[in-house]
Write a structure and sequence with these properties.
- With about 800 residues, the protein is an alpha+beta fold.
- The protein has 23 helices and 13 strands.
- Helix 1 crosses helix 7, helix 5 runs antiparallel to helix 6 and helix 16 packs parallel to helix 21.
């Protein structure tokens, strides 16, 4: 690999056509400066380390303990973040000022904060539980007290009624009977027990049913619903509940009731038998509730202040932990020397970054006060380097479109350079309407003006995708305005923007729906389609012919560009076989047929001929020697057609046969030469090997190479036809967009306008806006985007783009972003 220094400035001009020249470097770092060195290299972010300990498990590596330690710190930070989100505390934005905080101090600090926060949470939870229990207890005292008071009033009323009944009916026999009966009843009197508590309202009916069945009806249950939902002390959730009082007789019944209460999650509370104490207890509970409320509020305030303190430094701590963890992950990829005094690392870096890396190594040696400096050296290898394109926020989204198909092979021609223009242009050919283009432009400008805000926010999937491709959509909208002006369509309505129409009516009887009565009275309309064509009988035949031929011209031009790029690839990799036996025959075959068709289209446009191009192309194959007659567009056309047809036929075996035999001869010659080569020095042999093709030492299978070339030839020959036909989608989607736009305008907006009714007009405008936005600005945009994507991936890139490389993934703190642990 030819080396050229990166000394001419740290950032040479951006070149997207070929990936950055890379080399494999080796870094030998003393143990005492290893962490600081890797940290400085992470700041630069221009070296991709190779894992030299791939055979070891994560637990066997040198710095496994430090990674575990960082993981524990990250766990504590996640705990803090969770607590802050629950308390609606937003972490402060990252401050530019760097704080001198090392991992040891942070570990102690986070440990203390976690212990304090855990203790506050435990105390708060305990107090809150006690508070909720007291709230429920107060409700039980109030509701159950009402039961007993009502019962007491009822008993007193009955007693008074009985007393009055007895005094009114006194006789000689009555005292004898009545004096003895109460005495007998009091001796046999059974004392009833009772339990009070709260049960969830949803379980109240089932609770009552189970109590009745378990005690065979030997209980008396009273329930009263609580007006507002209360917080359950066990779960901490708001639940609607009923207060219950259940009366029973005997210990067996009591034990059954207790089990049922436990099963239904009913909270039981003691209730004083002496009703006189009830008011006193309610007063005591209210006093304790107010005390607990004050204590809880003080605790929450203290917790909020603690979380605010954490939030001020959370982002800095989080960055520090993430950086430290990534540093130790990288150190684990380095192999330790046998003396255990230094670490050896290998990785890929761009050649222009050499000086920056060396400066970082030197700085780390000085700052760590190491007596031995790090050693930096370039290694020679046959391994394929990673692909690295330096993009900016404008070109990045276009490069992403290409990378979604496949990452470019190292130093391969990058289609992303041309995609910046061709992708939005082909989209606009299908979407051409300058009214719709302005709508998309305004939406995109809004995203661009607010990009600072949105780039720092977490967006939804669709919004994030749209925001990421904002500059692609910007160019798509600008090109749509351009093609819309060419098609002369503003929401399907034509305008005389650049001059009056070149056509006018011959007389007053001329109908606006036909071009038969129109005559040309002025110069040709200067830019785009003359507005007179719109609404005429010949509008569709004219526009269909125009757009179909234009699609073929654009398709052939782009496919030719793809084949020309394959020539530059072959030239760059010094592959003469591909130039002579792939590029040249492909150019002859494509242009001998479809390049010739494009020429005929242009000649027909220029001369105004009425020749039938379908007839010309069909009979070029079926009867190449027949006279063309009225379909002849220029002199000696028949001879030229015969020559082109013959060259196209020759191009097929030219692509198929020579290349496999030449590759076999090259392989044999290479290996025959190697058999008699003298031994060389180690360094020279490494350099010789680095210049060889990585497939030189593999077994050459002629049959495989021949079959591969056969498939490639068939694919290209058939693809030349199918790919050209595929570009007709430009015509089809453009026609569909135009017709849909016309339907919405005429059948919705104009129809509503014709009723002379404000309500109908208002509804019509609303329907037109929603139809335009939903169908034309969203669905049609997505459809045209996908079709443009297919034309680039399949029809354009398959002519030259292998896309079997792998991305340059450097160790960089800037790329850590907001990765989840």
């Amino acid at each position: 690999m030819a080396e050229h220094g990166g000394g001419a400035g740290c950032c040479p001009p951006m070149d997207l056509f070929r990936s950055e020249p890379m080399h494999l470097v080796q870094v030998i770092i003393p143990i005492e400066s290893a962490r600081l060195t890797v940290s400085y290299l992470g700041d630069i972010g221009l070296i991709q380390f190779k894992d030299l300990n791939a055979e070891k498990s994560p637990f066997q590596r040198t710095y496994a303990g430090q990674i575990k330690r960082c993981g524990e710190l990250a766990r504590k930070l996640r705990l803090f973040k969770d607590q802050m989100s629950k308390a609606d505390v937003t972490p402060s934005a990252k401050s530019e000022a760097k704080t001198d905080c090392n991992l040891d101090d942070l570990e102690v600090n986070l440990g203390e904060l976690e212990a304090e926060l855990t203790e506050i949470n435990a105390n708060s939870e305990k107090l809150q539980r006690g508070y909720n229990e007291l709230v429920e207890y107060k409700l039980v005292l109030q509701k159950a007290g009402e039961f007993f008071k009502a019962a007491e009033r009822s008993a007193a009323a009955q007693q008074r009624e009985l007393s009055s009944h007895q005094t009114g009916e006194e006789s000689l026999e009555t005292p004898l009977l009545k004096d003895q009966e109460p005495t007998a009843d009091q001796s046999k009197q059974v004392k009833l027990g009772f339990l009070t508590g709260l049960v969830p309202k949803g379980k109240a009916m089932a609770f009552e049913r189970i109590l009745f069945r378990a005690t065979r009806g030997n209980v008396f249950l009273r329930q009263a619903s609580v007006e507002e939902a209360v917080i359950d002390p066990s779960s901490g959730e708001k639940v609607e509940k009923n207060v219950f009082v259940v009366f029973f007789s005997g210990e067996r019944a009591k034990s059954k009731i207790l089990k049922i209460c436990e099963a239904f999650g009913a909270n039981r509370y003691s209730f004083p038998e002496d009703l006189s104490k009830q008011a006193q207890m309610i007063t005591e509970v209210s006093g304790r509730l107010s005390e607990l409320k004050t204590t809880i509020d003080t605790g929450l305030l203290h917790r909020g202040n603690l979380l605010e303190t954490i939030g001020k430094q959370y982002e800095q701590w989080n960055d520090l932990v993430r950086k430290e963890k990534s540093i130790y992950h990288t150190l684990n990829m380095l192999s330790i020397d046998v003396t255990k005094k230094c670490l050896v690392g290998e990785g890929w870096s761009p050649i222009f970054a050499t000086q920056q890396i060396q400066d970082a190594l030197q700085k780390a040696t000085i700052d760590s006060k190491s007596q031995v400096g790090a050693i930096f050296q370039v290694l020679h290898t046959k391994e394929l380097p990673p692909t690295y394109f330096r993009t900016n926020k404008f070109t990045d989204s276009f490069q992403t479109i290409v990378d979604a198909y496949g990452v470019a092979k190292y130093q391969e021609a990058n289609p992303g350079v041309y995609t910046v223009v061709t992708f939005p242009f082909l989209f606009a050919v299908m979407f051409g309407d300058w009214g719709h283009g302005i709508c998309i432009l305004l939406a995109t400008l809004y995203l661009i003006f607010r990009e600072k805000k949105y780039s720092s926010q977490k967006l939804g999937d669709i919004m994030e995708m749209t925001f990421g491709g904002r500059y692609v959509i910007l160019l798509m909208s600008l090109f749509s305005i351009y093609t819309g002006l060419i098609y002369n369509e503003f929401f399907s309505v034509p305008f005389e923007l650049f001059s009056p129409s070149a056509y006018a009516c011959r007389d007053a009887a001329c109908s606006e729906a036909t071009t038969i009565g129109l005559i040309k009275v002025r110069d040709t309309y200067p830019f785009g389609v003359d507005p007179a064509w719109h609404g005429s009988r010949s509008e569709l035949p004219f526009l269909n012919s125009l757009k179909m031929k234009m699609s073929i011209l654009l398709g052939v031009a782009q496919m030719n560009l793809g084949i020309i790029l394959s020539f530059f690839n072959a030239l760059h990799f010094r592959n003469a076989v591909n130039i002579w036996f792939q590029f040249i025959p492909q150019m002859i075959f494509l242009n001998g047929l479809f390049g010739y068709l494009s020429l005929l289209i242009i000649v027909k446009w220029c001369t105004g001929s009425k020749a039938d191009l379908y007839h010309v192309m069909i009979y070029m194959f079926l009867s190449p020697t027949d006279d063309l007659g009225e379909n002849q567009l220029f002199p000696n056309q028949k001879t030229i057609q015969l020559v082109l047809l013959l060259l196209s036929l020759i191009a097929v075996p030219w692509m198929l046969l020579p290349k496999p035999f030449i590759l076999k001869a090259q392989h044999n010659r290479t290996h025959q030469g190697e058999s008699y080569t003298a031994l060389q020095g180690t360094e020279d042999s490494l350099q010789v090997e680095a210049g060889h093709d990585p497939h030189d030492h593999e077994e050459f299978e002629f049959s495989e190479v021949f079959v591969h070339q056969l498939i490639h030839t068939i694919e290209f020959v058939l693809g030349a036809v199918s790919n050209t036909a595929s570009y007709l989608r430009l015509w089809a989607l453009s026609l569909a967009h135009s017709e849909l736009s016309t339907v919405f305008y005429e059948k919705v907006l104009l129809l509503a306008w014709g009723y002379n009714n404000v309500i109908i007009l208002f509804v019509g405008i609303i329907v037109f806006i929603f139809a335009t936005v939903g169908v034309l600005l969203v669905m049609e945009t997505l459809s045209a985007f996908l079709h443009a994507l297919r034309l680039h991936w399949v029809e354009f890139q398959n002519k030259f783009y292998e896309g079997d490389g792998y991305k340059f993934a450097p160790f960089s703190f800037a790329l850590l972003g907001n990765e989840e642990e």
